[in-house]
Amino acid sequence: MTAEAWAPTAPAQTRHRWRLPTRLRNLELLLLVFACAINGAAILLVQLGALGHVDFALLYYCAALAALVFLLHVCLRVSAPHADPLILPIVTVLNGLGIAEIYRIDLELGQSGWQSAGVRQIAWTAIAVACAIAVILVVRHHRMLQGYTYLFGIGAIVLLLLPMVPGLGRTVFGARIWIAVGPFSFQPGEVAKLFLAVFFAGYLVQHRDALSLVGRTVLGVRLPRLRDMGPILVLWALSMAVIVFQRDLGTALLYFGLFLVMLYVATGRVSWVAIGVVLFAGGALVASRTLPYVTARFQNWLDPFNPHVYDATRGSFQLVQGLFGMAYGGILGTGLGQGRPATVPLAQSDYIIASLGEELGLAGLFAILALYLLFVSRGFRIGFSGRDDFGKLLAVGLAFTVALQCFIVIGGITRVIPLTGLATPFLAAGGSSLTANWIIAALLLRLSDTVHDQPRVVV
Amino acid sequence: MNRELKRVSVVVLAMFVALLVSTSIIGAVRSDSLAADPRNSFTLADARLAQRGSILVDGRAIAKSVPSKDQYKYQRVYTNGPVYSSVTGFFPVNGAPTGIEGALNESLSGTSGSQFLTRLTDTLTGKHPQGASVELTIDPSLQKAAYDALGSLKGAVVVLQPKTGRILAMVSRPTFDPNTLAGHNTAQLDATYKALLAAPTRPLVNRAIGGNLNYPGSTFKPIVAAAALDSGTYTADSTLPDVAALRLPGTDSYVHNAERTKCGDGNTVTITLAMIRSCNIPYAELGMKLGADTIRAAAEKFGFGHAFDIPIPVTPSIYPDDYNVPQTGLSSFGQASTRATPLQMAMVQAAIANGGLVMQPNLVEWVKSANLHTLERFTPKVFDRAMSEQTANTLRQIMVEDVKKGVASNATIDGVDVGGKTGTSQNGPGLPYTLWFTGFAPAQSPKYAIAVVVEDGGGEGQSGVGNTIAAPIAKKVLEAVLKK
Fold it and tell me: Is A362 in contact with B27 (CB distance < 8 Å)?
């Protein structure tokens, strides 16, 4: 990072010179300009590739979005000057690439105005960034959240149950994870994951001592006491309920994986992980035998090219066409606006990664994966350097949801694991996911700032 | 806590490494085999933009793709479009191709499995992909003669090479110009297609191998004769009762001969004479004695009930399996619910001309990739033996007699012995007849087997017969190659 040349002020401090707040913020500004340049170029390339000319109307919308992101940057200068300088640029570039690709598929499908997912995604981005600004301004210190631990827990349960409320819930592609009010639809589960992360962090900080206690040793593994099994069983039951009643394998895996990792980090007991993996694998195995939609998912994963599986009603058509699309993109891709991403069903939402893989190629996918990894590592860095357990756990939990969600979606599309419908963070079309993930980014920004404020005790 | 965090970091790193590996496998390692999958819509869409291979007749392109400046990059052009449309079909930019364009679409577009290597080298060398070319078995002079001979009549002509099954001519009229369906203006294309589809003359139907199929009428009699002679119970001189009217058992319906008289002079008539004079009553009697199962078994050996791919899919000709005795009687002169394509009836004559062997009909001489690599080559294939060689020779003589002295006299060609059988099938009270001629020439060593069908009575309602309308067409077609 050669921020020196750009920094207007350079106080003569020898150690950690670049950690000075103004330098952090200037680096962020520089990277933000770069991110916006990438996004603008992506939109331009899409227009040149698919339309053959430049359409300024959309560029104005995007410029307005960029202005909003710069507003967030200004808020950080005022309210969280020590915040991590990489998080905002990473999120901005991911969000922008997502908009460019969604817009590209709109062009292929011939959709415009509010009918087009791209314009809606731009609107949702505005809402999401506004939410992030609100979070930065309202949550002045992450300990504020700790006080509402159980409120977040109850909130998460309510959000999860909302789609089951008759008249409010909607079933989309077989999964009952949506609510609809008038023309607006929302996936409360996306926000629930955020609430759960806060709740788990607060709860585990309080109860980690009891959960760390060791019971009997079986086969060399020190098992926890049976009476402490309550929380993990409740979480297991919750995720199984999501699989059975909401028919959403990916979300169940996300919640349970999040809990397991936070539990492990809080207690340091590998046995919890072992118990959790056995419980979930057992549940998933039973589900794959008894629930037709899960059976189909497993079959599609194991034998997608079999003509019978390919042509079946819940068959592997989408999975296989997605693979074809990415293979068609090859190493360098067709170029933005020059492929045929709309060939694959749900190319704008669940399958945005396959669409990007086709047009940006393997090189583009590697860059996107690197951005995610960098984002997650910034979160973990906060976890490493944090001084209070709540902050550490929360940072790890939030960063891990992003990592796990990426793995579940991209792993599903690329046949690492069975395909389950989840939104790719920041990229996929969909307001709920976008808002939730921007709030995660805002919380990580806040955490990185407050962590810095605290006196350093032990590294 | 940091120790645990480190371990979790390693797990997260492993997760991302898994994703890097999986995306690499798809995007780089296996991308070629994924691209070669016939279900790959991405490469299929590319194929639509590739330079499609030509369809050739005698080395000359009757369908080819020439560069165009619009988004489709190439324009399909058909030479003598209407003459060959029954064979080529058409290739619309916004729909499914038909005819050879459809049946050999993968080869022509370059997406067939055998062209994988060519496609791969094209991609590597940056050459624009090209499809394979297809040479047809069609003889241009026969095709043109058949097209002209049918003129404005509604019908079809098929000419086969009896020894091999090569289809030398295949014409269905009225037809269309495939150039009108090859345009790049999709709205106009849809309008043209709809108009052709709605036209009462049904020009898009290929009557040579499909459509509603016609009653074969008397052209079916050789099949009954073949079954009878092969049964061992009958010879060509076996006699059948000769009456002026035959009441079908268990009904009030009567069968008459075409002239409403007896067939011969005595009380009996031979199988040969009944064929030459095309008498219905003796054949109804013969058929009822043989039974529907025997006739069906014989018909199926000729190809009835089989869906041939030439490689255009052919509608199977029908000899139903639920005939009662009177229906069996009617079916013996090609009525009841018996229906056949001209291709099938040409195959019957080809089998007689080929010592009883039925050859698989085919239109494709060879398929060659853009770099002149032969991907497919015509090889004669036997479909079945329809009758003994002796029976075939006997029937061949009867067929020649039929043209020389019988009711197929209008197919006579000076200096060449022609064998054949006419047919005049009834479509119901007051409806115009369907007129047939099926035959072969030259009789000594047959090079051509032909079937001509004319629908709607050839414009003459119930006045025209096979010999007056269909036989002269066959004569004109065969003369184009025999009288040189």
Answer: yes
